UniProtKB/TrEMBL annotation:
EC number from the UniProt entry: 2.7.13.3
Chief subcellular location: membrane
Pfam families with a match to the protein in the record: HATPase_c, PAS_8
Catalyses which reaction(s): ATP + protein L-histidine = ADP + protein N-phospho-L-histidine
SUPFAM superfamilies: ATPase domain of HSP90 chaperone/DNA topoisomerase II/histidine kinase (SSF55874), Homodimeric domain of signal transducing histidine kinase (SSF47384), PYP-like sensor domain (PAS domain) (SSF55785)
Protein name stated in the entry: histidine kinase
Protein backbone atom coordinates (compact mmCIF):
# COMPACT_ATOMS: atom_id res chain seq x y z
CA UNK A 1 0.00 0.00 0.00
CA UNK A 2 1.45 3.33 -1.11
CA UNK A 3 1.13 6.12 1.49
CA UNK A 4 0.49 9.71 0.50
CA UNK A 5 3.03 12.45 1.24
CA UNK A 6 0.70 13.99 3.84
CA UNK A 7 0.39 10.66 5.67
CA UNK A 8 4.15 10.15 5.65
CA UNK A 9 4.68 13.64 7.06
CA UNK A 10 2.07 13.01 9.78
CA UNK A 11 3.74 9.73 10.81
CA UNK A 12 7.11 11.45 10.86
CA UNK A 13 5.93 14.29 13.13
CA UNK A 14 4.23 11.85 15.51
CA UNK A 15 7.36 9.71 15.71
CA UNK A 16 9.70 12.68 16.36
CA UNK A 17 7.51 14.13 19.13
CA UNK A 18 6.93 10.73 20.72
CA UNK A 19 10.70 10.23 20.89
CA UNK A 20 11.21 13.72 22.39
CA UNK A 21 8.58 13.13 25.07
CA UNK A 22 10.18 9.77 25.98
CA UNK A 23 13.68 11.26 26.25
CA UNK A 24 12.49 14.27 28.31
CA UNK A 25 10.60 11.99 30.67
CA UNK A 26 13.63 9.74 31.12
CA UNK A 27 16.31 12.41 31.51
CA UNK A 28 14.53 15.30 33.18
CA UNK A 29 11.94 13.67 35.40
CA UNK A 30 14.00 14.51 38.55
CA UNK A 31 14.32 18.23 37.58
CA UNK A 32 10.73 19.39 37.71
CA UNK A 33 11.34 22.87 36.34
CA UNK A 34 13.28 21.71 33.25
CA UNK A 35 10.76 18.91 32.76
CA UNK A 36 7.83 21.34 32.71
CA UNK A 37 9.66 23.76 30.40
CA UNK A 38 10.59 20.91 28.03
CA UNK A 39 7.02 19.65 27.94
CA UNK A 40 5.77 23.16 27.12
CA UNK A 41 8.34 23.40 24.30
CA UNK A 42 7.29 19.99 22.94
CA UNK A 43 3.65 21.09 23.05
CA UNK A 44 4.52 24.30 21.13
CA UNK A 45 6.44 22.19 18.60
CA UNK A 46 3.37 19.97 18.14
CA UNK A 47 1.19 23.04 17.55
CA UNK A 48 3.73 24.45 15.06
CA UNK A 49 3.89 21.09 13.27
CA UNK A 50 0.09 21.03 13.03
CA UNK A 51 0.10 24.58 11.63
CA UNK A 52 2.78 23.64 9.08
CA UNK A 53 0.82 20.47 8.25
CA UNK A 54 -2.27 22.56 7.55
CA UNK A 55 -0.25 25.05 5.48
CA UNK A 56 1.16 22.18 3.42
CA UNK A 57 -2.33 20.76 2.93
CA UNK A 58 -3.93 24.02 1.81
CA UNK A 59 -2.51 23.94 -1.78
CA UNK A 60 -3.63 20.35 -2.23
CA UNK A 61 -7.12 21.30 -1.02
CA UNK A 62 -7.24 24.11 -3.57
CA UNK A 63 -5.99 21.73 -6.25
CA UNK A 64 -8.60 19.09 -5.35
CA UNK A 65 -11.41 21.65 -5.37
CA UNK A 66 -10.18 23.04 -8.71
CA UNK A 67 -9.98 19.58 -10.24
CA UNK A 68 -13.55 18.78 -9.14
CA UNK A 69 -14.78 22.08 -10.63
CA UNK A 70 -13.04 21.34 -13.92
CA UNK A 71 -14.47 17.79 -13.94
CA UNK A 72 -17.95 19.28 -13.49
CA UNK A 73 -17.18 21.85 -16.25
CA UNK A 74 -17.94 24.61 -13.79
CA UNK A 75 -15.65 27.46 -14.84
CA UNK A 76 -17.29 30.03 -12.57
CA UNK A 77 -15.46 29.00 -9.36
CA UNK A 78 -12.48 31.19 -8.47
CA UNK A 79 -10.39 31.32 -5.27
CA UNK A 80 -9.56 34.44 -3.25
CA UNK A 81 -5.99 35.15 -2.04
CA UNK A 82 -5.10 33.80 1.43
CA UNK A 83 -2.08 35.97 2.28
CA UNK A 84 0.27 33.02 1.84
CA UNK A 85 2.68 33.88 -0.94
CA UNK A 86 3.14 30.33 -2.21
CA UNK A 87 -0.57 29.53 -2.04
CA UNK A 88 -1.54 32.87 -3.59
CA UNK A 89 0.79 32.18 -6.54
CA UNK A 90 -1.01 28.89 -7.11
CA UNK A 91 -4.39 30.63 -6.79
CA UNK A 92 -3.38 33.28 -9.35
CA UNK A 93 -2.37 30.59 -11.87
CA UNK A 94 -5.61 28.65 -11.28
CA UNK A 95 -7.82 31.75 -11.59
CA UNK A 96 -6.05 32.76 -14.83
CA UNK A 97 -6.53 29.25 -16.25
CA UNK A 98 -10.23 29.25 -15.27
CA UNK A 99 -10.74 32.66 -16.95
CA UNK A 100 -9.16 31.36 -20.17
CA UNK A 101 -11.19 28.14 -20.07
CA UNK A 102 -14.40 30.10 -19.48
CA UNK A 103 -13.63 32.43 -22.38
CA UNK A 104 -12.81 29.50 -24.66
CA UNK A 105 -15.96 27.66 -23.69
CA UNK A 106 -18.08 30.78 -24.21
CA UNK A 107 -16.49 31.36 -27.61
CA UNK A 108 -16.98 27.71 -28.54
CA UNK A 109 -20.64 27.79 -27.46
CA UNK A 110 -21.23 30.98 -29.45
CA UNK A 111 -19.58 29.47 -32.52
CA UNK A 112 -21.59 26.26 -32.10
CA UNK A 113 -24.82 28.23 -31.72
CA UNK A 114 -23.99 30.31 -34.81
CA UNK A 115 -23.12 27.17 -36.81
CA UNK A 116 -26.38 25.49 -35.80
CA UNK A 117 -28.40 28.55 -36.80
CA UNK A 118 -26.46 28.82 -40.07
CA UNK A 119 -27.12 25.17 -40.93
CA UNK A 120 -30.78 25.52 -39.94
CA UNK A 121 -31.27 28.58 -42.18
CA UNK A 122 -29.13 27.26 -45.03
CA UNK A 123 -30.84 26.88 -48.44
CA UNK A 124 -28.67 23.80 -48.96
CA UNK A 125 -29.90 20.49 -47.56
CA UNK A 126 -27.43 19.32 -44.92
CA UNK A 127 -27.16 15.84 -43.39
CA UNK A 128 -24.70 15.26 -40.53
CA UNK A 129 -23.74 11.69 -39.60
CA UNK A 130 -22.57 10.18 -36.32
CA UNK A 131 -19.48 8.03 -35.79
CA UNK A 132 -21.32 4.98 -37.22
CA UNK A 133 -22.36 6.89 -40.36
CA UNK A 134 -25.96 7.12 -39.29
CA UNK A 135 -27.80 10.42 -39.76
CA UNK A 136 -27.57 12.39 -36.52
CA UNK A 137 -29.20 15.63 -37.73
CA UNK A 138 -30.95 17.05 -40.78
CA UNK A 139 -31.72 20.72 -41.33
CA UNK A 140 -35.21 21.94 -42.41
CA UNK A 141 -34.16 22.13 -46.07
CA UNK A 142 -33.15 18.44 -45.97
CA UNK A 143 -36.46 17.35 -44.42
CA UNK A 144 -38.36 19.36 -47.05
CA UNK A 145 -36.25 17.99 -49.91
CA UNK A 146 -36.57 14.37 -48.74
CA UNK A 147 -40.24 14.89 -47.74
CA UNK A 148 -39.72 13.20 -44.38
CA UNK A 149 -39.72 14.57 -40.82
CA UNK A 150 -36.42 14.66 -38.96
CA UNK A 151 -37.39 11.73 -36.67
CA UNK A 152 -37.71 9.47 -39.73
CA UNK A 153 -34.18 10.37 -40.86
CA UNK A 154 -32.10 10.44 -37.69
CA UNK A 155 -30.51 7.21 -36.52
CA UNK A 156 -30.61 5.60 -39.97
CA UNK A 157 -28.13 4.77 -42.71
CA UNK A 158 -28.82 6.23 -46.14
CA UNK A 159 -29.58 2.74 -47.46
CA UNK A 160 -32.37 2.38 -44.88
CA UNK A 161 -34.31 5.38 -46.22
CA UNK A 162 -36.38 4.62 -49.31
CA UNK A 163 -35.88 7.76 -51.38
CA UNK A 164 -34.84 7.87 -55.07
CA UNK A 165 -32.09 10.42 -54.45
CA UNK A 166 -30.67 8.73 -51.34
CA UNK A 167 -30.72 5.37 -53.09
CA UNK A 168 -28.21 6.79 -55.55
CA UNK A 169 -26.07 8.16 -52.71
CA UNK A 170 -25.96 5.12 -50.43
CA UNK A 171 -22.56 4.01 -51.76
CA UNK A 172 -21.04 7.40 -52.60
CA UNK A 173 -17.40 7.92 -51.67
CA UNK A 174 -16.01 10.42 -49.23
CA UNK A 175 -15.03 13.86 -50.59
CA UNK A 176 -16.94 13.10 -53.79
CA UNK A 177 -18.95 15.74 -55.66
CA UNK A 178 -21.67 14.40 -57.94
CA UNK A 179 -24.51 15.80 -60.02
CA UNK A 180 -27.69 13.71 -60.00
CA UNK A 181 -31.19 13.99 -61.38
CA UNK A 182 -34.42 13.16 -59.59
CA UNK A 183 -37.54 11.59 -61.01
CA UNK A 184 -38.66 14.85 -62.60
CA UNK A 185 -36.57 17.75 -63.82
CA UNK A 186 -34.76 18.25 -60.51
CA UNK A 187 -30.98 18.38 -60.69
CA UNK A 188 -28.84 18.21 -57.57
CA UNK A 189 -25.19 18.69 -56.72
CA UNK A 190 -24.10 16.45 -53.85
CA UNK A 191 -20.89 16.85 -51.89
CA UNK A 192 -19.87 14.42 -49.18
CA UNK A 193 -16.97 15.13 -46.84
CA UNK A 194 -15.96 14.73 -43.18
CA UNK A 195 -14.68 16.59 -40.14
CA UNK A 196 -12.96 15.55 -36.91
CA UNK A 197 -15.00 15.46 -33.70
CA UNK A 198 -13.08 14.71 -30.47
CA UNK A 199 -10.43 12.97 -32.49
CA UNK A 200 -12.84 10.78 -34.49
CA UNK A 201 -14.16 11.15 -38.03
CA UNK A 202 -17.72 12.24 -38.75
CA UNK A 203 -19.25 12.61 -42.21
CA UNK A 204 -21.60 15.24 -43.56
CA UNK A 205 -23.43 15.66 -46.87
CA UNK A 206 -24.54 18.80 -48.71
CA UNK A 207 -27.35 18.54 -51.29
CA UNK A 208 -27.81 21.66 -53.42
CA UNK A 209 -30.64 21.96 -55.92
CA UNK A 210 -29.48 23.39 -59.26
CA UNK A 211 -32.76 23.04 -61.14
CA UNK A 212 -33.70 26.72 -61.45
CA UNK A 213 -30.20 27.81 -62.47
CA UNK A 214 -29.91 25.09 -65.11
CA UNK A 215 -33.38 25.72 -66.52
CA UNK A 216 -32.77 29.46 -66.71
CA UNK A 217 -29.45 28.91 -68.47
CA UNK A 218 -31.02 26.42 -70.89
CA UNK A 219 -33.93 28.71 -71.69
CA UNK A 220 -31.66 31.68 -72.40
CA UNK A 221 -29.57 29.54 -74.75
CA UNK A 222 -32.35 27.90 -76.77
CA UNK A 223 -34.54 31.03 -76.77
CA UNK A 224 -31.83 32.98 -78.53
CA UNK A 225 -31.25 30.22 -81.10
CA UNK A 226 -34.98 29.78 -81.78
CA UNK A 227 -35.58 33.50 -82.22
CA UNK A 228 -32.72 33.71 -84.72
CA UNK A 229 -33.93 30.63 -86.60
CA UNK A 230 -37.57 31.76 -86.64
CA UNK A 231 -36.60 35.21 -87.86
CA UNK A 232 -34.50 33.91 -90.72
CA UNK A 233 -36.91 31.14 -91.74
CA UNK A 234 -40.02 33.34 -91.60
CA UNK A 235 -38.37 36.10 -93.60
CA UNK A 236 -37.14 33.64 -96.21
CA UNK A 237 -40.41 31.72 -96.43
CA UNK A 238 -42.46 34.91 -96.82
CA UNK A 239 -40.34 36.10 -99.73
CA UNK A 240 -40.17 32.65 -101.36
CA UNK A 241 -43.93 32.10 -101.10
CA UNK A 242 -44.56 35.52 -102.61
CA UNK A 243 -42.37 34.65 -105.59
CA UNK A 244 -43.96 31.19 -105.92
CA UNK A 245 -47.51 32.59 -105.85
CA UNK A 246 -46.67 35.15 -108.53
CA UNK A 247 -45.01 32.46 -110.64
CA UNK A 248 -47.94 30.11 -110.15
CA UNK A 249 -50.34 32.76 -111.49
CA UNK A 250 -48.51 32.56 -114.81
CA UNK A 251 -48.75 28.78 -114.90
CA UNK A 252 -52.53 28.36 -115.15
CA UNK A 253 -52.38 27.13 -118.72
CA UNK A 254 -53.25 23.43 -119.17
CA UNK A 255 -49.85 22.62 -120.62
CA UNK A 256 -48.21 24.02 -117.45
CA UNK A 257 -50.27 21.92 -115.05
CA UNK A 258 -47.28 19.87 -113.82
CA UNK A 259 -45.27 22.99 -113.10
CA UNK A 260 -48.22 24.59 -111.33
CA UNK A 261 -48.69 21.47 -109.22
CA UNK A 262 -45.00 21.47 -108.29
CA UNK A 263 -45.22 25.11 -107.24
CA UNK A 264 -48.26 24.34 -105.11
CA UNK A 265 -46.34 21.51 -103.38
CA UNK A 266 -43.44 23.91 -102.72
CA UNK A 267 -45.82 26.48 -101.22
CA UNK A 268 -47.43 23.87 -98.95
CA UNK A 269 -44.03 22.62 -97.87
CA UNK A 270 -43.00 26.14 -96.98
CA UNK A 271 -46.18 26.57 -94.95
CA UNK A 272 -45.43 23.37 -93.04
CA UNK A 273 -41.90 24.58 -92.38
CA UNK A 274 -43.33 27.85 -91.11
CA UNK A 275 -45.68 25.95 -88.79
CA UNK A 276 -42.75 23.82 -87.65
CA UNK A 277 -40.81 26.92 -86.64
CA UNK A 278 -43.83 28.51 -84.97
CA UNK A 279 -44.13 25.50 -82.69
CA UNK A 280 -40.57 26.09 -81.53
CA UNK A 281 -41.28 29.78 -81.07
CA UNK A 282 -44.36 28.96 -78.96
CA UNK A 283 -42.07 27.44 -76.32
CA UNK A 284 -40.10 30.69 -76.09
CA UNK A 285 -43.19 32.92 -76.12
CA UNK A 286 -45.10 30.95 -73.47
CA UNK A 287 -47.09 33.62 -71.53
CA UNK A 288 -47.46 33.59 -67.74
CA UNK A 289 -50.46 31.50 -66.63
CA UNK A 290 -53.74 33.33 -66.16
CA UNK A 291 -55.13 31.32 -63.24
CA UNK A 292 -58.79 30.82 -62.44
CA UNK A 293 -60.48 28.13 -60.30
CA UNK A 294 -61.27 25.18 -62.57
CA UNK A 295 -63.08 21.91 -61.88
CA UNK A 296 -60.38 19.35 -62.56
CA UNK A 297 -62.93 16.57 -63.00
CA UNK A 298 -64.65 18.42 -65.84
CA UNK A 299 -61.33 19.22 -67.51
CA UNK A 300 -60.27 15.57 -67.41
CA UNK A 301 -63.62 14.47 -68.89
CA UNK A 302 -63.23 16.91 -71.77
CA UNK A 303 -59.62 15.95 -72.53
CA UNK A 304 -60.47 12.26 -72.19
CA UNK A 305 -63.25 12.61 -74.79
CA UNK A 306 -60.84 14.48 -77.06
CA UNK A 307 -58.15 11.78 -76.83
CA UNK A 308 -60.47 8.77 -76.88
CA UNK A 309 -60.54 8.40 -80.72
CA UNK A 310 -56.74 8.37 -80.85
CA UNK A 311 -56.61 5.68 -78.14
CA UNK A 312 -59.32 3.62 -79.83
CA UNK A 313 -57.44 3.76 -83.13
CA UNK A 314 -54.49 2.03 -81.48
CA UNK A 315 -56.65 -0.41 -79.49
CA UNK A 316 -55.63 1.23 -76.19
CA UNK A 317 -58.09 1.48 -73.30
CA UNK A 318 -58.34 5.07 -72.02
CA UNK A 319 -59.93 5.20 -68.60
CA UNK A 320 -60.39 7.91 -66.01
CA UNK A 321 -61.23 7.66 -62.29
CA UNK A 322 -62.64 10.80 -60.69
CA UNK A 323 -63.59 11.55 -57.07
CA UNK A 324 -67.31 12.07 -56.36
CA UNK A 325 -66.82 15.72 -55.40
CA UNK A 326 -65.45 18.43 -57.66
CA UNK A 327 -61.74 19.24 -57.35
CA UNK A 328 -61.17 22.97 -57.81
CA UNK A 329 -57.66 24.06 -58.72
CA UNK A 330 -56.49 27.55 -59.80
CA UNK A 331 -54.94 27.01 -63.23
CA UNK A 332 -54.68 28.42 -66.72
CA UNK A 333 -57.23 26.22 -68.48
CA UNK A 334 -55.69 26.44 -71.95
CA UNK A 335 -52.17 25.69 -70.72
CA UNK A 336 -53.09 22.83 -68.39
CA UNK A 337 -55.27 21.22 -71.08
CA UNK A 338 -52.23 21.34 -73.37
CA UNK A 339 -50.22 19.54 -70.66
CA UNK A 340 -52.85 16.80 -70.35
CA UNK A 341 -53.06 16.38 -74.12
CA UNK A 342 -49.26 16.07 -74.42
CA UNK A 343 -48.90 13.59 -71.57
CA UNK A 344 -51.89 11.42 -72.55
CA UNK A 345 -50.72 11.39 -76.19
CA UNK A 346 -47.28 10.16 -75.09
CA UNK A 347 -48.87 7.51 -72.87
CA UNK A 348 -51.09 6.26 -75.71
CA UNK A 349 -48.15 6.09 -78.11
CA UNK A 350 -46.17 4.06 -75.55
CA UNK A 351 -48.90 1.38 -75.51
CA UNK A 352 -49.91 -1.38 -77.87
CA UNK A 353 -53.37 -2.84 -78.42
CA UNK A 354 -54.91 -4.15 -75.21
CA UNK A 355 -52.88 -1.98 -72.86
CA UNK A 356 -54.32 0.75 -70.65
CA UNK A 357 -53.92 4.46 -69.94
CA UNK A 358 -55.46 5.60 -66.64
CA UNK A 359 -56.17 9.20 -65.60
CA UNK A 360 -56.53 9.36 -61.82
CA UNK A 361 -57.69 12.53 -60.05
CA UNK A 362 -57.39 13.22 -56.30
CA UNK A 363 -57.71 16.34 -54.19
CA UNK A 364 -53.96 16.95 -54.14
CA UNK A 365 -52.66 15.41 -57.34
CA UNK A 366 -53.40 14.19 -60.83
CA UNK A 367 -51.77 11.05 -62.22
CA UNK A 368 -51.62 9.73 -65.78
CA UNK A 369 -50.26 6.19 -65.92
CA UNK A 370 -49.86 3.46 -68.50
CA UNK A 371 -48.58 -0.10 -68.65
CA UNK A 372 -46.91 0.39 -72.01
CA UNK A 373 -43.21 0.49 -72.86
CA UNK A 374 -41.31 1.38 -69.67
CA UNK A 375 -38.86 4.27 -69.50
CA UNK A 376 -35.30 2.98 -69.42
CA UNK A 377 -32.89 4.45 -66.84
CA UNK A 378 -30.80 5.92 -69.67
CA UNK A 379 -33.78 7.94 -70.98
CA UNK A 380 -35.24 8.88 -67.60
CA UNK A 381 -32.71 11.65 -66.92
CA UNK A 382 -33.08 13.19 -70.41
CA UNK A 383 -36.85 13.23 -70.92
CA UNK A 384 -37.32 16.86 -69.90
CA UNK A 385 -34.22 18.16 -71.63
CA UNK A 386 -35.16 20.74 -74.26
CA UNK A 387 -36.04 19.17 -77.64
CA UNK A 388 -35.02 15.64 -76.60
CA UNK A 389 -37.21 13.02 -78.28
CA UNK A 390 -37.16 9.23 -78.68
CA UNK A 391 -39.42 9.38 -81.75
CA UNK A 392 -37.82 9.39 -85.24
CA UNK A 393 -39.97 12.37 -86.29
CA UNK A 394 -40.28 13.98 -82.85
CA UNK A 395 -39.25 17.54 -82.10
CA UNK A 396 -39.04 17.14 -78.32
CA UNK A 397 -41.37 20.10 -77.85
CA UNK A 398 -44.22 18.38 -75.97
CA UNK A 399 -42.41 17.62 -72.71
CA UNK A 400 -40.43 20.87 -72.89
CA UNK A 401 -43.67 22.83 -73.11
CA UNK A 402 -45.22 20.65 -70.41
CA UNK A 403 -42.24 21.29 -68.14
CA UNK A 404 -42.39 25.06 -68.57
CA UNK A 405 -46.16 25.25 -68.06
CA UNK A 406 -46.03 23.25 -64.83
CA UNK A 407 -43.05 25.21 -63.54
CA UNK A 408 -44.85 28.49 -64.24
CA UNK A 409 -47.85 27.17 -62.29
CA UNK A 410 -45.61 26.12 -59.40
CA UNK A 411 -46.78 22.48 -59.61
CA UNK A 412 -44.14 19.83 -58.74
CA UNK A 413 -44.22 16.84 -61.09
CA UNK A 414 -42.43 13.58 -61.79
CA UNK A 415 -42.26 10.93 -64.50
CA UNK A 416 -41.02 7.45 -63.68
CA UNK A 417 -41.58 3.76 -64.32
CA UNK A 418 -42.30 1.77 -61.16
CA UNK A 419 -41.01 -1.77 -60.50
CA UNK A 420 -44.52 -3.09 -61.32
CA UNK A 421 -44.11 -1.84 -64.92
CA UNK A 422 -46.55 1.08 -64.73
CA UNK A 423 -45.22 4.44 -65.90
CA UNK A 424 -46.63 7.36 -63.91
CA UNK A 425 -46.72 11.08 -64.66
CA UNK A 426 -47.75 12.80 -61.42
CA UNK A 427 -48.68 16.47 -60.94
CA UNK A 428 -48.93 17.79 -57.37
CA UNK A 429 -51.19 20.76 -56.68
CA UNK A 430 -49.71 21.64 -53.30
CA UNK A 431 -52.91 21.98 -51.34
Amino acid sequence: MKLSLRTKYLFYIIAIHAALIFLIFKWLQENKLLFIVSEVLVLASVLAAIQIYRAFGQPSQFISAGIEAIKDKDFTIKFVPTGNREVDGLIDVYNLMIDQLREERTKQMEQQFFLEKLIEASPIATLIFDFDRRISSANPKATALLQRPANQLTGRHLSEIDHPLLNQLAHSNDSETRTLKGTGIETYRIQRSHFMDRGFRRDFMLIEELTSEILESEKKAYSKVIRMMAHEVNNSIGAINSILNVTKSYMDAPDQEDVSHALQIAIERNDRLNLFMRRFADVVRLPPPHKNPVDLNEMVRNVSRLMHPQAAARGVVLHHALPPDSVWVPVDVVQLEQVLVNVIKNAIEACIAGQTVDILVASEHLMIRDNGIPISPDLETNLFNPFFSTKPDGQGIGLTLTRDILLNHGFPFSLKTNPDGWTEFTILFGK
